[in-house]
């Protein structure tokens, strides 16, 4: 891989050990994947933040690094609400370790906002064809697919290295030729809301890491595309998808996609099987309900607030969002919390140990539905947001 004189100096160690390590990681990845050079990135999102997932070894690794990131950088969700961790049953030892991890990232100049929806943050805007180094799979999918930006599926160390160097190796999804759809999925009936999470859950399982192009009966809303991408990234390893006539590259007149030879149609009965999980008695009744995977937008908070107005929950009901979205929508948060539900920031049902004492979680997210059993050791069932609210209220469904 070609390196400029400056980059070579960094790799030699002239700019310190941390930057030498970071450059070494980028060059190694570039060499493995056949990159010609490093390219500048606009922003980084660093995953591997929760103490639940990185433990003491991760904390030690981050704490040893020195330097300052060169591009705006934020964090993936942590293992707890950084301000109100007590109210979701986080113990003091975990909280102390989690706060040390956040401080170690802050020492590197990384913004301590912890979210899988960095595209909602002020000052973190993403444009068409921007190069990024993002680490959380749903955010990667949203950036690549819905925003038309370009990022590989970065791991924690590679996203952090890219943030410190301000560049990434030019391979994979940074190259236009690697962004062409190679699988066609047709859905001939109307979908709405969490149907997109169910669709993503099914599609991801079928296509693995392929790049699908969807043909849908109508254009989805951005929250629906957020759910679709998150679910496909979890049940499969999809980092980029297109929707004919909707997503930026599928609308770009300068890009012509050949029709993929692999094609499937998804039937309504397949979507129904995902919802049927909620009626499968072997999973048991949910003893906790969570929404906000990926983190809720303002519009999703509005919908939940409306469904809860004047009502009281009888089960634990946690709604995950970023602190910035919560702070900008304090009235909605307070309306939701009047019901006894909790709006929880900086974390989520999967990367936090908070939900581990429950036995069955109801979710409206295909990603959470896929990950909760393995990551939290409990059953998961899937429902619409309306059904999740009814479950939390103890209403007959
Ligand atoms: Fe975000 Fe956690 Fe879901 S990181 S996409 S809320 S599993």
From TrEMBL:
InterPro entries: PMDh-L-like_dom (IPR007506). Component of a hydro-lyase that catalyzes the dehydration of mevalonate 5-phosphate (MVA5P) to form trans-anhydromevalonate 5-phosphate (tAHMP). Involved in the archaeal mevalonate (MVA) pathway, which provides fundamental precursors for isoprenoid biosynthesis, such as isopentenyl diphosphate (IPP) and dimethylallyl diphosphate (DMAPP). Pathway: Isoprenoid biosynthesis; isopentenyl diphosphate biosynthesis via mevalonate pathway. The keyword Secreted does not apply. Its EC number is 4.2.1.182. One of its GO terms (biological process) is isoprenoid biosynthetic process. It is an enzyme of class 4 (lyase). GO terms for molecular function: lyase activity. PANTHER family: DUF521 DOMAIN PROTEIN (AFU_ORTHOLOGUE AFUA_6G00490). Residues 1-390 form the Phosphomevalonate dehydratase large subunit-like domain. Keywords: Iron, Isoprene biosynthesis, Lyase. It comes from Methanolapillus ohkumae. It comes from the Archaea. Belongs to the AcnX type II large subunit family. It catalyses: (R)-5-phosphomevalonate = (2E)-3-methyl-5-phosphooxypent-2-enoate + H2O. This is Phosphomevalonate dehydratase large subunit. Heterodimer composed of a large subunit (PMDh-L) and a small subunit (PMDh-S).
